[in-house]
Give the backbone structure.
Amino acid sequence: DTGVSQDPRHKITKRGQNVTFRCDPISEHNRLYWYRQTLGQGPEFLTYFQNEAQLEKSRLLSDRFSAERPKGSFSTLEIQRTEQGDSAMYLCASSGPHSNQPQHFGDGTRLSIL
Amino acid sequence: GESVGLHLPTLSVQEGDNSIINCAYSNSASDYFIWYKQESGKGPQFIIDIRSNMDKRQGQRVTVLLNKTVKHLSLQIAATQPGDSAVYFCAEMRRTDKLIFGTGTRLQVFP
C-alpha cells in the first residue's frame, strides 16, 4: 500500500496526558498537512510542511500543539496536556511536488479524551 | 464504523439514477477546487479536481462543473451505485496550499 499511513488509528487517553501521532506520507510527496475533523464537520486545516519546513500554522493550533517533520519524510503531531475539546479525528494528507495538486489523505487518528 | 456526519444535508437517490451534489464556495480568489468522498471511519478520498481556468472536467462516471460567476461547484455522478454512498465534501484552495472544506452532503443510494 503506497497511500498515506497514520498511526495509531485510535487513541484513548485521560485529560492532561500528552499524545503523539505519526504520519507517513506518500513517498514522492514533499508537502504534508495536518487537519482536524469533528463529527458533522469538514476537516479544518492545522498546519503544513514543505519538506522539513513548517510554512503555515492555523490559529486552531494552540501552544499545546506541536508538529515536526525533521527529515522531510514522516511527521509527528504532539498534543500536550490534552483537554476534552481535543477529542477529534486528526487527519494527515500529502501532495506534491508542485502546488495546486490533489492532497491525499490517510484514514486518520481518532483521539478520545476521557 | 463511526458516522462521519450526523446532521448533514442528505441526498437520496435510487441506484442507477444520476446524482448532483452542490457546493457554494466563499472566496472568489480561490483557484483550485477538489471533491472528496468520505466513508465512515476513513479519511477523505480524492475524486476529481478542477482549476479556476476551467468550467468543466470529467472523470470516470463523475463530472465537476464550476461557475465562478456565482461561486458554485457541482459534482455529478452518473449511474449511481450503492458503493457511492458516503459523505461528499467540496474543498477550495486559496493561494496557499491549505484546503478549506465545505459542510458536506450525505449521499444515500437505495435499491
